[in-house]
Design brief:
Helix content is 37%, strand content 15%. It is an alpha/beta fold. It is built from 5 helices and 4 strands. The chain has helices spanning 6-17, 39-44, 60-70, 84-90, 104-119, and strands at 24-28, 50-55, 94-98, 124-129. The longest helix is centred in the last third of the chain and has 16 residues, at 104-119.
Length: 142
């Protein structure tokens, strides 16, 4: 998903093609700020989805190239302790968390719980702690 269109476009697009499918929204911790408030109307209007927020405490894709080009990470670091699952709860969703110490079994249990809650008609937000990666290294995103 991109930064500009938000949940409404992804949800509408996915449901128009596969109306009975589960919609999974994949966000980074930076990009979710653009449209996380859309969880509230989704819960109010009974339009459930599962949101996975990969939380590495950074605008990582931006930071990589910005540091190389400008020599500074200003504006890129985020707080990795931000409880995005609690933000989801505040908007009426079920909030779940996968911590850095989670085993693979615990991760699978959490994702199964997300699917179970979704099957009850609930929107679910899963805050997933991530380490740094080289994802999309070399892309220009400054």
């Amino acid at each position: 998903f991109d930064l500009s269109s938000g949940i409404n476009a992804e949800y509408g697009g996915a449901k128009s093609v596969r109306p009975k499918s589960v919609v999974w929204v994949l966000w980074g911790d930076g990009s979710c700020a653009y449209s996380i408030a859309e969880i509230e109307p989704a819960t109010r209007l009974n339009l459930p989805f599962i949101a996975i927020i990969g939380n590495d405490g950074s605008w990582g894709q931006i930071e990589r190239e910005q540091v190389k080009m400008l020599g500074s990470d200003v504006g890129c670091p985020l707080n990795p302790a931000t409880p995005y699952h609690k933000v989801g709860e505040g908007y009426g969703a079920v909030g779940l968390e996968i911590r850095p110490s989670a085993t693979e079994e615990k991760m699978q249990q959490t994702l199964r719980l997300a699917q179970e809650e979704h099957s009850k008609g609930r929107t679910v937000v899963v805050n997933v702690a991530l380490g740094k990666s080289k994802f999309r290294e070399g892309s220009v995103s400054v």
